[in-house]
């Protein structure tokens, strides 16, 4: 539970950091590029990938995920700036629908009645929270970005679970995030050079934002992979808990730090999320 909560805290921190990027005019793509370089550096120090590099399937999985991570982060940044931190986090965490479906189909995980009720309550809560009024400064057209984030996040969560369950071993599990971030660093750097050129990296604010984001980014994936690696804990439980906690953390941060406002319907949704989390905790052996 502790690892899931830490992963959720990091996930909620993404949208909050991206809103601060907008407030302090931090260039998005340069910060994302630096972020992945920092995440790779953290992984190289904490969990070097040299032992995992001999596993060819793991390299393929890390390459696909590393590329997908860059797309998700770029979409998350744009969505947080145009649709708000709370709404962006909700859209990304709604991907649990795809994640749970993938876990049941790919790993033959079974859902008992109590967990099924918890999932339904969580989905109702997320939908209610997402149906509130548009936040100040956002536009209705900005919902295209959260929708894209929903799909990409679901694919990423399923892929992380699949690679972790299929190809990682106790010796390579911590090196897997390092491999992913190595690929993300290369992909984001190529995109940056093509679009903006290397001069975009010369701004100090890009480095401040990128370094902060990189540490949080590496920690989020490391905590998630370690949580999925615990014997007896199903992905169909890990992801709903992480998503619900991420919503609650993002909501608290949005209210306290960013002064975002929620409607009565959204508060009802948050109540459902809390109720669902209690159900999951009761259902956990």
Put the structure in a nutshell.
This protein has 285 residues and is an all-alpha fold.
Structure write-up:
The protein has about 280 residues and is mainly α. It has one domain (about 1-285). The chain has 11 helices and no strands. It has helices at about 1-25, 30-45, 55-85, 85-95, 95-105, 115-130, 145-165, 175-195, 205-230, 235-255, 265-285. The longest helix is centred in the N-terminal third of the chain and has 28 residues, at about 55-85.
Could you name the key traits of this structure?
mainly alpha, 285 residues
What is the fold's blueprint, element by element?
Blueprint: H1 2-23, H2 28-46, H3 56-83, H4 85-93, H5 96-107, H6 113-130, H7 144-166, H8 175-195, H9 204-228, H10 235-256, H11 264-283
Helix pairs in contact: 1-3, 1-4, 1-9, 1-10, 2-8, 2-9, 3-4, 3-7, 3-8, 4-6, 4-7, 4-10, 5-7, 5-10, 6-10, 6-11, 8-9, 10-11
- Shape assignment: globular
Radius of gyration: 18 Å
What is the chain-wise order of helices and strands? HHHHHHHHHHH
Low-confidence stretches: 134-141
Average pLDDT across residues?
Answer: 79
The share of residues in extended strands comes to: under 5%
How many beta-strand elements? 0
Which class do the helix and strand fractions yield?
A: mainly alpha
The number of domains is 1
Largest sheet: none
* Total of DSSP H or I helical runs spanning 4+ residues: 11
Helical percentage: over 70%
Distance between the termini: 12 Å
């Amino acid at each position: 539970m502790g690892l899931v909560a830490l992963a959720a805290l990091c996930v909620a921190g993404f949208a909050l950091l991206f809103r601060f990027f907008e407030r302090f005019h931090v260039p998005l793509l340069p910060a994302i590029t630096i972020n992945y370089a920092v995440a790779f550096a953290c992984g190289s120090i904490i969990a070097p990938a040299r032992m995992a590099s001999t596993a060819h399937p793991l390299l393929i999985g890390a390459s696909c995920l590393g590329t997908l991570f860059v797309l998700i982060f770029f979409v998350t940044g744009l969505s947080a700036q145009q649709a708000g931190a709370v709404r962006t986090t909700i859209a990304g965490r709604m991907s649990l629908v795809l994640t749970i479906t993938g876990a049941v189909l790919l790993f033959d995980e079974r859902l008992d009645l109590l967990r099924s009720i918890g999932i339904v309550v969580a989905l109702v809560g997320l939908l209610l929270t997402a149906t509130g009024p548009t936040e100040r400064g956002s536009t209705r057209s900005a919902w295209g970005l959260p929708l894209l984030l929903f799909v990409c996040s679901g694919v990423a969560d399923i892929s992380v679970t699949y690679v972790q369950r299929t190809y990682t071993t106790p010796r390579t599990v911590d090196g897997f995030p390092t491999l992913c971030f190595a690929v993300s660093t290369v992909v984001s750097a190529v995109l940056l050079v093509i679009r903006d050129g290397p001069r975009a990296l010369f701004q100090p604010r890009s480095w401040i934002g990128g370094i902060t984001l990189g540490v949080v980014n590496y920690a989020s994936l490391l905590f998630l992979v370690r949580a999925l690696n615990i014997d007896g804990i199903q992905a169909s439980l890990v992801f709903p808990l992480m998503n619900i906690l991420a919503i609650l953390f993002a909501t608290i941060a949005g209210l306290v730090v960013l002064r975002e406002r929620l409607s009565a319907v959204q508060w009802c949704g948050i109540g459902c999320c809390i109720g669902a989390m209690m159900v999951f905790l009761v259902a956990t052996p």
